[in-house]
Amino acid sequence: MNNNKLINWHAFKNTCVILFACMFVMSSCGENGDNDKEGGAYDPGKPVVIESFSPLEGGMATRMLISGSNLGNDPSKIKVYFNDKEAAIIGCDKGKALVVTPRQPGDTCTISVVIGNDSVIAPEKFIYHISTTVITLVGQKGTNELKTGSFAEATFMNPSTLTVDNEYNIFLSHWRGNYDIVMINQQDRTVTKMFSGDPTGAPSTDTEGKVVMFPSDGGDVMYVLDPAAQWGVRRRQILHPSAEEQGTGMKDFTINWKHGFAACKLDDMIYTRSYGGQIIKFNPKTRVGELVADGIEPDTDSFLSFDPVNTHMLYISYTSRHCIFTFNILTKEHKLFAGTKNTSGWKDGSTDEALFTNPCQLIFDVNNNIVLADAGNHCIRQITPAGRVSTLIGIAGKSGYQDGNPDDALFNYPKGVAIDKDYNIYIADFNNNCVRKLAVE
Predict the structure, then answer these.
(1) Mean local confidence (pLDDT), 412-418
(2) Which sign, positive or negative, has the C-alpha torsion 186, 192, 195, 200?
(3) Cβ contacts of residue 337 below 8 Å, gap of 6+?
(4) CB neighbourhood size of 377 (10 A)
(5) Strands of 88-93's sheet in order across
(6) Residues 6 or more apart whose Cβ sits within 8 Å of residue 76
(7) Interatomic CA distance for residues 92 and 71, integer angstroms
(8) Tens digit of pLDDT for each residue in 289-305?
(9) Residues 69-122 pLDDT 10s
(10) Cα–Cα distance, 214 to 413 (Å, whole number)
(11) CA-based torsion, 364, 367, 370, 375: positive or negative
(12) CA distance 61 to 83
């Protein structure tokens, strides 16, 4: 989006705020300034009533006017929820409350108002519309080498997978050339090469979002980047359990290739999967690992992510199998979740009828939706907790390069996705040699 468009958009939003504020004042008073509803403080002896709200649909930061009675005149004492997401209160008086919709509360929202011990629900539902746009954060289409420096001069060659820490730094596995690890500092708008010479898979932070770990493609090796050590890259081994530890029940492991790490909040361990079908976990502080399961869909690349709500559930995308499985780390159950095994294609719908082509890195968003880089279909897919698959952005089967909204945006074999603490999504657009930023509002 160019600067003129940004200025116009901000001007439009400011105008909307003024108009809604005027609506709020006008609707609170009659033509001659007389109150059309009794004002004053909330009375706990009277019922709170919601008669209506307007508009009935909108997106993030939509100004909504709620009409009713006994809503009080103290904004600090009223709470309004869209499903379970709390809205910001601009003002309330004379049976009116002006609120701002929160970010991504769900497609269909129940509006509830809480004042004191009273809680009431609006008679109608609010329909929330998600606005999705993609921009190029850094990189230049048509380049074929890594160049570090400012965002204006930086280029990549096949950026593959990535993660984001708590400070909004992006860490990228640069798959071609010298197999570089790079750090993208969004605050300084710079790209820095941290390491080169060894192919690495999908990185992960620890459960605190601080220390970053990259799996080396082969063996027990990994690379650790710690802000406490000034981001110096340390080559480390995943340690095998000692004879004494094996005596306590820890199982030894082998790793032939590993393509991703995933941090588990249930046990604070880091999980990885070997190409040969072994799932291994290790303690990020002691680096001691152990075998979790063997024979888990061998002979395919895979990418991992833990469900942030059901923290025992590990989701695994199998790239050459064109599907996503779940693995329960408590019961060891391994189950097909979405797609048809060994059948490529593109189809939205329920998880049992959806089709994917070479799915790669996957993450969870603010509403516990899975966001997936569907590389072979050149698009980003979404899977809801209810099991519905949709194309979030990109045109299925059409490769290209275009920023914009879901009707216009194009990718070329996107392999990596990551999400920051503000729920901005970053995409490693492999064949376009760019890192794209997806704003979902």
Answers:
(1) 98
(2) positive
(3) 315, 323, 324, 325, 326, 351
(4) 28
(5) 49-54, 63-69, 96-100, 88-93
(6) none
(7) 7
(8) 999 999 999 999 999 99
(9) 999 999 999 999 999 999 999 999 999 999 999 988 888 999 999 999 999 999
(10) 21
(11) negative
(12) 15
- Give the residue-averaged pLDDT of 263-269: 97
H or E segment at 25?
Answer: helix 3-28
> Does 68 score more than 50 pLDDT?
yes
Q: Which two tokens stand for residue 367?
A: 């509403």
Count Cβ neighbours within 10 Å for each residue of 270-308 and write b for 16 or more, e otherwise: bbbbbbebbbbbbebeebebbbbbeebbeebbbbbbbbe
Q: What is the Cα–Cα distance from 236 to 228, expressed in whole angstroms?
A: 16
Torsion angle in degrees (nearest 10) through CA of 204, 210, 216, 220:
-100
Instruction: For the chain, list the domains and their CATH numbers.
Output: 3-128 (2.60.40.10), 132-440 (2.120.10.30)
Block residue for tokens 């009713």: 68
pLDDT digits (tens, 9 = 90+) for 184-236: 999 999 999 999 999 999 999 999 999 999 999 989 999 999 999 999 999 99
Give the residue ranges of DSSP H helices in 149-305: 243-247
Q: Amino acid identity, residue 25?
A: V
- What mean pLDDT value characterizes the chain? 90
- pTM here? 0.81
Q: Give the integer Cα–Cα distance in Å for 182 and 410.
A: 24
User: Which residue has 């390491």 as its token pair?
Assistant: 195
pLDDT tens, position by position, 271-294: 999 999 999 999 999 999 999 999
Which among 209, 204, 126, 201 has a CA at the least distance from the CA of 167?
209
Amino acid residing at 271: Y
Instruction: List, in sequence order, every beta strand (DSSP E) within 148-257.
Output: 149-150, 159-164, 170-174, 180-185, 190-195, 204-205, 212-215, 221-225, 233-237
Q: Which two tokens stand for residue 336?
A: 């097909």
Q: Are 182 and 145 in contact (CB under 8 A)?
A: no
Give the DSSP H/E element, type plus range, for residue 13: helix 3-28
Integer Cα distance of 293 and 314 in angstroms:
13
- Residue 86 CA to residue 396 CA, distance in Å, equals 35
Q: Which two tokens stand for residue 64?
A: 């909504």
Report the distance separating Cα 353 and Cα 340, nearest Å: 8
Q: What is the dihedral of CA 216, 191, 154, 5, to 10 degrees?
A: 120
Reduce the DSSP state of residue 11 to 3 states and report it: helix
